[in-house]
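Folding Query — how this chain folds
Tokens — whole-number codes for backbone shape
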Amino acid sequence: QVQLTESGGGLAQAGGSLRLSCAASGSIFSIDAMGWFRQAPGKQREWVAQITSISGVSTDYADSVKGRFTISRDNAKNAVYLQMNSLKPEDTAVYYCRVVISRRNYWGQGTQVTVSS
């Protein structure tokens, strides 16, 4: 099995920063991509960012976070991170880590991020 463990969520003021971490453990042969999603109350889960090695390491971001969030990975630790700067109240959501292994999706348990105005 593959298990994802998230950490780093919490409270922040508008304009502040948080760093989310997600570490994968278990039966891991090769990680195709890692990314982050978020879900605010009453809304559907939305994609935030991803980092992939399919065609070399590349990153992609949702327009809503571009220029403020940075995704990175540590292959030795099977970990992915999300550095969130210039936080806005609309960033408040539960953030979920996703790891793609052999075209199969694995999800973290979610970590709450709350941004006050």
About this structure: The chain has a mean pLDDT of 94. The chain is about 0% helix and 60% strand. Residues 15 and 86 are 4 Å apart (CA to CA).
